[in-house]
Amino acid sequence: MSAVLSASDALELSRAEDRDWWRQAVVYQVYPRSFADADGDGIGDLRGILSRVDYLAELGVDAVWLSPFYPSGLADGGYDVADYRDVDPRLGTLADFDELVAALHARGIRVVVDIVPNHTSDRHAWFQEALAAGRGSAARERYIFREGTGPDGSEPPTDWTAAFGGSTWERVDDGQWYLHSFAIEQPDLDWNNPEVREDFLTTLRFWSDRGVDGFRIDVAHMLTKDLSEPLPSAAELAALPVDGSHPLLDRDDVHEIYAEWRRVFDAYDPPRTAVAEAWVASDRVPKYASPESLGQSFNFDLLRASFDADEFRQIVADNIALAARSGSSTTWVLSNHDVFRHPTRYALPRVEEVDGAVPNRHGGGWLEAGADEAVIDRAGGLRRARAASLFLLGLPGSAYLYQGEELGLHEVAEIPADQRQDPTFFRTHQEQYGRDGCRVPLPWTREGSSFGFGSGGAHLPQPSWFADSSVEAEEGDPASTLSLYRRALALRHELLAPERLEWVETGRDDVLRFRRPNGWEVVTVFGAQPFALSLSPGRRVVLSSAPLDGDTVPGETTVWITGD
C-alpha cells in the first residue's frame, strides 16, 4: 500500500500530532450508564468502562468522550448535574476516574468529558440553597427566578415551551417561578452572575488537573440570555432573528465566556480542547470553532441528512469551507445519544424536511405509530449505514462515533411505557418516545441476563436480537460491522493526510468520489445500481463496506482505494 505525502504535508501532520491531535481524531462517545456494568446493579459504571479499555484500544479510537458521570437525579440521563466535581456513587469514585484516565492514556487514548453549563440539577447545592433563601437572595441570583403573571402571580412569566414539553417555568413554594429550558429538574443558571462564571472555571481546572484532555460543551449556544422586561411571548420570540442578539439562543456575548475558558485551556501543555454542541445556523458555527472560543464545533448536517449523494456532497463542501473560515477542523457524526441510530434512520422510508427539520431524526413518527416492521428495511439500513460510515471516516476532520455503531446496532423500539426514562416521553404525555432506544445497554456476549453488560439486568430492556449483534458474535466474523470498523480505523491511521480533498468526476449523480492529498480515494455508490471502477495500474481497493464483484462496486457501498 502506498500513501506518499509531500515534505510539506508530512511536516503539517507531524506538527498536529500533539498540540492539534484533535483535528483529525476519531472520538468514541461512551454513554457510561449503558456501556458496561462492573458491579451488577444494572447501571453502567466507570469500572465497567475500565474493564473494556482493551476493546477500545483494539477498535482503534484516538479519544473517548464520556457523557456525564457526575452525581445526578437522572431526570435527563445524567445531564442534570448535582455536583460538577465528583462522580455519581452509583458509577464509582474519583479514584476510579483517575484509574480509568491512566488506563486510557497508557493505550494512547485521550479523554474528553461532558460539561453541562446551561443548567444544574435541582438537587445541586446551589439550587437547594436558592429554594431555602427566598426572594431577593444572592443564592437565587445564580439562577433565573421571576415573579408570575396574573392577579396573584399564579401564571408563569411567559407562555414559552420547554425543549422536553410543557412550560419552561416552574413555580416554587414561595410563589416565584424559575426558568428551565429542558426538564423541570434542570433549572437554568444565570450566566450574568460572576459567581457562576468563576465556578465553572474552577470545574474546568479540576478536570484538566486530573488529566482530562478536552471537553464537550452541552448546548453551548444557550448559556447567555437577555431577559429584560417586558419578556416576549412565544410567538414574538419565534419571530425574532437568531443573529447574535436573540434573547435566548446563540447570543454573541456567549463567546465572552468561552474566551475566559480558552485562557484556562491554553494554560495547559498541550492545551485542553473543546467542542461545542451548538445547534446554530451554519454561518454561526465558525464563532464557536474559532481558536479564541471553544476551538471546534459539532457539524450535525450528516446526522440530519438522507442517504443521498447530492446532500452529502453539499454538506461536505459547506463544512470544509466553514472550517477554513474558523481555522478549525470540521467534525462528522452520524449517531449520538440524542438521535435515532443511523442504521434505523436509513432503513425508514425517506421523509422530506419540514420547517427546517427532518422528522425522522427521532424516527419520523415510526415509533409513535407502532414501529411497524413492514415499513422498515433493516438490511438495507445497515448496508447504507456501513457505506455512510466509511464515507465519513475518509473525510478530512475529526469523526465522532457513538457506542454500538461499530456493531451496526439498530434503534431499540420495543421498550414498554413503564420502563422508559426519557423526560420527553413524560412531558409530552407519552406522545413522543424520545431517546431511550439509542441508550439501551450494549450487548457484549450472545447470552446472559444482560448480554454481558453486567452480572445483573440492564436499566433499559435489551431485545433478543442483540445476541447476534453482540461483540462476541461479531468479533470472529471478518464480514461483521465490528470487523469493518476495526479495519477502517487501522487504515485511517495509516492513510491520514492533511485536511483537504478534491472531488473526482464519476459520470453519475448518485456516485461520489474524492481524493485526499496522499492519493487515498473514497468512492460511495448511493444508488442501487452497481458502479464499475476505473483503476489505474497499481491502484487497488483496500476496504469495502460490501463484497465487490471484481472491479464493480455494488449499490449502496463505499470503497477505499490506494496504491501507486
Question: In words, what does this structure look like?
Answer:
27% of the residues lie in helices and 12% in strands. It is an alpha/beta fold and 564 residues long. The strands form four sheets. It has a seven-stranded parallel β-sheet with strand order 8-7-3-2-1-10-9. Helix 6 packs parallel to helix 8 and helix 13 (378-393) packs parallel to helix 16 (481-495). It is globular. It starts with 6 loop residues before the first helix and ends with a strand. The relative contact order is 0.11.
Roughly what is the average pLDDT, rounded to an integer?
Answer: 93
Residue fraction in strands: 5-15%
Radius of gyration: 24 Å
Helical stretch tally: 16
Search tags:
alpha/beta; 7-stranded parallel beta sheet; 17 strands
Topology:
Layout: H1 7-16, E1 26-30, H2 46-50, H3 53-59, E2 63-66, H4 94-106, E3 110-115, H5 125-133, E4 145-146, E5 169-171, E6 177-179, H6 194-209, E7 214-217, H7 234-239, H8 254-266, E8 273-276, H9 285-289, H10 301-304, H11 309-326, E9 331-333, H12 342-345, H13 378-393, E10 398-402, H14 423-427, H15 471-475, H16 481-495, E11 502-503, E12 511-515, E13 521-525, E14 531-532, E15 539-544, E16 552-553, E17 557-563
Helix pairs in contact: 6-8, 13-16
